[in-house]
Design a protein that fits this description.
The chain is elongated and about 105 Å long. By secondary structure, the chain is an all-alpha fold. The chain contains 3 helices and no strands.
Length: 120
């Protein structure tokens, strides 16, 4: 603890902070509008469904969502199959090109002037 007038001012300042912050926080967060915003933002409180709602509509909506998810999964499966087929086709075409390049490479490095060894 500091001595003298500065020490007394420091202690008064700390005491004011220790007392003031909880009072200001209590006043600030006790406002109903801020409480509602906090509840909606963080969703700490989840209320059950209204008993007056039509359960048939909710069930139909959930079934429709499930059907949409199933259709989406089927589309993804089909796209994956097509991608696999395309990949296999590309690999085969690369193998054919590699075979053609290998047979051309056998002709020799002087093929551009006509002295490249055997011709096909």
């Amino acid at each position: 603890m500091a001595k003298g007038k500065q020490g007394l001012q420091l202690e008064a300042w700390k005491f004011g902070i220790y007392i003031g912050i909880p009072i200001i926080a209590s006043w600030w967060f006790s406002d109903p509008v801020r409480q509602r915003q906090a509840v909606e933002y963080y969703q700490y409180v989840k209320y059950p469904a209204n008993p007056n709602t039509n359960m048939k509509e909710q069930i139909e909506r959930l079934q429709k969502q499930q059907e949409q998810h199933q259709a989406y999964r089927e589309q993804l499966r089909e796209l994956n199959k097509q991608a696999n087929r395309t990949t296999a086709t590309l690999q085969q075409s690369h193998e054919v090109k590699d075979d053609a390049a290998a047979s051309e490479a056998k002709r020799g490095w002087l093929r551009w002037i006509g002295l490249g060894g055997k011709r096909l």
